Amino acid sequence: MTDKLISRNYDFIDTMRFISMIGIVMEHSSPFLGMRFTNFHDQIIQTTALQFIKFGTIVFFILAGFLIGDKFNHYTTKQYLGRRLTTTFKPWLFWVTIFIVLFFIDQGVRFYKGSPAPGFSHPLDFLLNRIHFIIVETSFWFIINFMLCITILLVFRKYMYSLVFGGILAVLSLFYSVNLYFDWMPTGHTTALLGFVFYLWLGVILHKYFDEFNQWINKQSFAILLSAVLITFAISCAETLNLMHIGSTDALNTLRVTNIIYSFACFLFLYRFCNFHAIERLKPRSMTFGIHLLHHILIIIFLPMLLRPLKIVYTNETAWSLFFMQFLIFILIYSVTYALVYYIRKSKKWKWAVGQ
């Protein structure tokens, strides 16, 4: 394979990562999150609205694994982890701190207005609660989980390309899929710390067999790959509706078997047909990490400030209203986040805070 072809495909990885981040931000900002409908018609609308963007997390891990496969060839284990701590963990810690400060500012406003403010009455408990919330229940969990996944791959580096090792990781992931039906442990994808290592490993394997993958994927037609996406989408929706029917508290979990297959289908389709040159103008390589870090802060802290004066309460809205609201809120959150990251990156002093 020529250097030109390799370069073009690596640019396409950046494009795919950018598209995946769009799905992740839309999911996190969706008014459907946490809603539990009893009407089947409303459940279909909710499921459809959330399922079509559920490919983002798994695709993101595969892409990260692909890039790791490239870096592993150029860095020792110590060098790679050291580099990650500087370029990834340092910005993460900075924005976690900003997140906590904003929570306390909000508590200060509540205290000033005479409203209950546990941040002032029980500051230590409030601090620990907010740290737990940020790390476990927001997008900031990804970096912790990502670093854990990388560490596991590095610890077992000598088995990196072993299919047996990959099989063990696949079983760990499927355990969380089965757990959705039996509730052996908490089902949230943020607690599935070992469930995503397989997809990182899969990206590493993809990098190793990149030439063979390209030869195969280029033979696949638009109709075949689109059909795979649509069929797996329908099956994923069906499983979600079934989980809702049996009373699951996490019916849209990322690690549902059908969503895993749907994510694979989306990965193949995006890789083959979605190399949009217009996205390259948005500088996906330099913007994606910053968008990941900042978007949930806007959703949790600032979005309620906008919705409150408008008297918008999600539980009072119809499913169709929430459906259209999902796209409007996404456009708002994504555009503001993008603008913030863009201007932060223009500062030589602060650009480290959104990645290099």
Automatic annotation (TrEMBL):
Where do the TM regions start and end?
A: 49-68, 89-111, 131-156, 163-182, 188-210, 222-244, 256-274, 286-307, 319-344
| Record keywords | Acyltransferase, Cell membrane, Membrane, Transferase, Transmembrane, Transmembrane helix
What kind of membrane protein is this, topologically? Multi-pass membrane protein
| Location, primary (coarse class) | membrane
Q: Name one GO cellular component term.
A: plasma membrane
Q: Which GO terms describe its biological process?
A: enterobacterial common antigen biosynthetic process
**Classification via Pfam families:** Acyl_transf_3 (PF01757)
* Molecular function as annotated in GO: O-acetyltransferase activity
Compartments where found = Cell membrane
All copies of domain Acyltransferase, residue ranges: 11-342
Similarity comment: family membership: Belongs to the acyltransferase 3 family.
PANTHER family, per database record: O-ACETYLTRANSFERASE WECH
Protein name, as recorded: Acyltransferase family protein
State the organism of origin: Pedobacter planticolens
Read off the lineage from the record.
Bacteria, Pseudomonadati, Bacteroidota, Sphingobacteriia, Sphingobacteriales
